Amino acid sequence: MTEETKRLKEMVSPLLSWFAGNARKLPWRDDPTAYHVWVSEIMLQQTRVEAVKPFYARFIGTLPDVKALAGCPEDQLLKLWEGLGYYNRVRNMQKAAQIAVESYDGKMPTDYGTLLSLPGIGSYTAGAVASIAGGQAVPAVDGNVLRVISRICGSEADIAKQSVKRGMEETLLEVIPADAPGSFNQALMELGATVCLPNGAPECSRCPVLHLCMAGKNGSWDHIPVKAAKKPRRVEQRTVLVIRDSEHAAVRRRPKKGLLAGLYELPNTEGHLTQEQALKETASFGFSPIRIRPLEDAKHIFSHVEWQMKGYLVLVEEQEEAGGGILFVEPERTERDYPIPAAFAAYAKYLKIRLGQEKYKDKG
Ligand code: SF4
Is the CB of 204 within 6 Å of ligand 1? Predict the structure, then answer.
């Protein structure tokens, strides 16, 4: 047994005792079925716990089980996800749910290998579901766990490397207690989320494994974990057009593939257009512009690309229809029926609609 494994095995008992007394009360922990754990874990990959709670409640309230998710119409599904971003994740969830309906008796599997074979499920999510809902002794290594274990072991290996993650999964396989794998994995994640914090100093003085932790003893937490810098994001300049008459606003559907696939958007185009160019673009959809006014600049950051947006509000003559794939609809319908991603949030106020989480604020 390596030094590392020995050190980590010693950590199991104090960590589990600490978790028993310090676990946060979270909605998905009340009834940790495979479906509940899965939905929460996918949501938590992109958003903080507090922000996930209302999304989770609404999602589970509307789609209470695998069968409901498998049969949900796409637009409704995307609406439920609106504001969380990474829409391919929810599309993959639906594909996985459809496989579960066809092949696993309508139930979410709890076996690690079976979970890994489903779309959108990697080793972390498979490990979380299999250990928490299935009681299988498999690791669930996410960013929190990579940080905590690197610090405890004083490891300066680059956690951005897949090989480092795999090595940690193998080590943890020897460490996970067979009688409490779900609690062990959750305890590690919880320690990372509430004590062994990523930015600024970790709270070592209240850490249950300080006596075993290399970084806690020698202060190397200030540079551990080591993570190689990612490639800088590509910057894209775009112009967004808020095209309105007194009753309608223009939206259109994005292509079926690529960024924000299949969602709706405000008409927009590459580059920063002048007022004159923006008027021409508006006319190209078959509209007759009356007035144009520049709006504030906005920025939206995706994982690999950053949009730097210029906006125009263009008032046009009343008409029923438009060309170029544009839907000219009442703004309330946009809020209700057409999922528009948060990237357009800065300009949505000119349609008098709210996007994502915003629109539920005064509806309880
Ligand atoms: S002692 Fe400090 S650095 Fe080590 S695991 Fe605990 S909080 Fe993290």
Answer: yes
Query: Above 50 in pLDDT, residue 362?
Result: no
Residue 14 alpha carbon to ligand 1 centre in Å:
13
Q: Is 180 in the pocket of ligand 1 (CB under 6 A)?
A: no
**Residue 40 CB contacts under 8 Å (≥ 6 apart), including other chains:** 26, 27, 28, 52, 56
For a ligand 1 pocket test, name from 147, 197, 209 the mutation site with the most ligand atoms within 8 angstroms of its C-beta.
Answer: 209
Active site residue 41: yes
Minimal CA–CA distance to 350: which of 237, 239, 244? 244
pTM of the complete model? 0.75
Average pLDDT over residues 198-210: 92
Mean pLDDT confidence for 244-272? 90
Average of per-residue pLDDT across 350-360: 61
DSSP notation for 31-49:
S--HHHHHHHHHHHTTS-H
Structure tokens at 143: 């960013």
Q: Please give the average per-residue pLDDT across 308-332, as a whole number.
A: 88
Task: State if residue 196 touches ligand 1 by the CB under 6 angstroms criterion.
Answer: yes
For residue 282, give every residue at least 6 positions away whose Cβ sits within 8 Å of its Cβ, in sequence order, or none.
Answer: 241, 243, 289, 292, 314, 316
* Ligand 1 geometric centre to CA of 46 (Å): 24
CA of 350 to the centre of ligand 1 (A): 48
- CB-CB neighbours of 256 under 10 Å: 7
Percent with pLDDT over 90 in the chain: 76
Mean pLDDT of 230-249: 91
When the pLDDT of each residue in the chain is averaged and rounded to a whole number, the result is 92
Single-letter amino acid code for the residue at 213: C
CB distance 8 to ligand 1 below 6 Å: no
Helix (H) or strand (E) segment spanning residue 13: helix 3-22
β-pair type (234-244, 268-270): antiparallel
